[in-house]
Amino acid sequence: MNGNFTYCNPTKLYFGKNALDGLNIELKKYGKNILFVYGGGSIKQNGIYDKVIEILKINNKNIFEDSGVMPNPTIEKLKDGIDKARKAKIDFILAVGGGSVCDYAKALSVSINCYEDIWDKYFIRFEDVSCKIVPIGCVLTMAGTGSEMNGGTVITNHEAKLKIGHVFNENVYPKFSILNPEFTYTLPKYQMVAGIYDIMSHILEQYFSGNDDNTSDYISEGLMRSLIKSANIAIKNPLDYEARSNIMWTATWALNTLIAKGKSEDWMVHMLGQAIGAFTNATHGMTLSSVTMAYYRFILPYGIEKFKRFAINVWGVNQDNKSELEIANEGLEKMEEWMQSIGLIMNISELGVKEDMIDDLVKSTLIMDGGYKVLSENDIKKIFKDSL
Ligand code: NZQ
Ligand code: ZN
Fold first, then answer.
1. 85 in ligand 1 pocket by Cβ < 6 Å?
2. Strands lying side by side in the sheet with 176-179
3. Domain total for the chain?
4. Which of 103, 139, 170, 252 to mutate to test the pocket of ligand 1 (most atoms within 8 A of CB)?
5. CA 76, 79, 84, 87 torsion: positive or negative?
6. Among 3, 27, 43, 214, which is most exposed with the fewest C-beta within 10 angstroms?
7. Predicted TM-score of the model (pTM)
């Protein structure tokens, strides 16, 4: 294992068909004024809203609602939410939804008692929290981001054409998260598939870094194999509990910091995807899939050993009389076939990107330095062009 690290994950998880019962136990630990945060209304259609309201009422909570959290939540929405939460003197935030709702709730939790410019402080200067944090809990309805067990929050600023994530420390993690795989059954297929690829991408971003023998990579390979198997089942039968529960659990472990331990991590696919998201507001997982093949084909020569290992251990590529390069390329081909077979978006044109937008996209892309090559602006331009 490389370097020194600490590992602490304070989020308590309730998993399974009865997971929502955990809300009764948890709510007792917090004050009366609850901000119930949710998205565009899917929870009203599938009955989760009514179930949550019933539990809040049984626990004699004062319920304040903050609805309409959009996919890729915006800084404008966040500012409205801060005002609402301040007026209601909120004790606890309950996020019920996907990654966008959980992320938004975390951004609120660090902003309600902060009187500085939130965008500049957290998303430009990346400062830590210096005010009292309002605790949050999540009831997850979509598997993908891992937001249910981490300190990440991603906010979009359309005016600045920036979509930026801030990963906070453990004090911002949800106090608890409720994971009932059945709550994800009503997800449209497009969202389910986008979530599956978001999980895959989180694992890849951590896996494709370093050349040491690292326990984290063995865990990552197991998670990827489970995800590929369960995704193939869920595509055919979205109501397969076993597959949906594996996908949900894999999502959590893909981004709760465990598999990053001892690793430098890459995250360039996310940086490219976030630039596309800032310009197109496209679905997060699809922004990642649309640049994935161009990025990994570009990076492969710099990390060939790991790409070979990926081909053999994740995709079962056999080594008979093949060069290292052939094996590595075959692994990527298998991944590409799998991505196409589950219905992912494989190019940025389909998300609304035109060639004349590429220079601006390059300017919006943050460059990270943990992967096999630190990209130059020209490299980024080439990857976007190859992704068209
Ligand atoms: O708004 P509602 O009506 O709830 O509909 C949502 C939304 O339209 C719908 N949905 C969610 N659960 C449903 C459902 N529809 C029917 N039945 C259900 N059970 O799905 C749509 C997408 O939801 P969203 O929350 O936006 O998706 P996701 O979970 O993929 O979250 C995306 C956001 O998370 C950020 C992304 O950048 C993006 O802003 N990320 C957060 C990360 C983190 N905190 O660590 C890491 C990720 O890499 C990612 O960047
Ligand atoms: Zn992601």
1. no
2. 12-15, 176-179, 136-140, 92-97, 33-38, 62-66
3. 2
4. 103
5. negative
6. 3
7. 0.98
Going by CA atoms, what residue is nearest to atom 38 of ligand 1?
72
Any atom of ligand 1 within 6 Å of the Cβ of 245: no
Helix pair angle (189-207, 241-254), 10° resolution: 40
What spacing in Å lies between the alpha carbon of 28 and ligand 2's midpoint? 32
Does residue 217 lie within any of the structural domains?
Answer: yes
β partners of residue 63: 34
68 lines ligand 1 (CB under 6 A): no
Q: Is 154 in the pocket of ligand 1 (CB under 6 A)?
A: yes
Q: For ligand 1, is residue 39 a contact (CB within 6 Å)?
A: yes
Contact between 227 and 252 (Cβ < 8 Å): no
Give the model confidence (pLDDT) of 133-184 as tens digits: 999 999 999 999 999 999 999 999 999 999 999 999 999 999 999 999 999 9
Owning domain of residue 382:
189-387
**Which residue's C-alpha comes closest to atom 40 of ligand 1?**
145
Ligand 1 atom nearest residue 73's Cα: 39
At which residue do the structure tokens 């020194």 appear?
Answer: 4
Q: What is the rounded distance in angstroms from the CA atom of residue 122 to the CA atom of residue 128? A: 7
Ligand 1 atom closest to the CA of 285, numbered from 1:
30
Domain identity same for 82 and 195: no
With a CB cutoff of 8 Å and minimum separation 6, the contacts of 153 are 103, 104, 106, 107, 147, 165, 166, 168, 172
Q: Do 169 and 292 belong to one domain? A: no
Quote the ligand 2 centre to 58 CA distance (angstroms): 36
